[in-house]
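Session log. Operator J.P. requested a structure for one protein chain; no other inputs attached. Running the standard single-chain path with C-alpha cell output.
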Amino acid sequence: TAAAAVLVAPLDDASPETVAQVGKKLAMHVVAAKPQYLASADVPADVLEREKAILEQQIVDQGKPAEIAKKIVLGRLSKFYGEICLLEQGHALEEKNPKVGKFLKEQGVVVKQFQTLS
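Structure written below.
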C-alpha cells in the first residue's frame, strides 16, 4: 500500500482546518498521480535536456519545419511538466481538475515538500 507525506503551510490567514484538509487531499493526490518533483524549476537540467532531445527528435521525424518545432517542443514540455511536477498536475480530487498550484493558491496554502512512502 502506498502512502504520502505532504508538508503544507498556510499563506496569509488560512485556517488550521483548511490546511489540514488540503494536506490530506494533497497526500491522496500524490499517491494517485506520483509526481516526481514539486515544481518545474526542480526538474534537473539533465532530465529536462533529455526530454527536449526526445521531443525534438520526434518532431524532426515528423518532418515539421524548425520554426514550428520550437513551439511544439514548448507545448509538449508543458505537458511533460504536468505529468511529473506536483504543482503543474491537474488535482485528481477536485472538481474540474484545477492545477494543484492554482488550487493551493485559492486555498491559501503552500506545499513545502512531499514524499511518497511505500
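Operator note: Strands lie at 3-10, 109-117.
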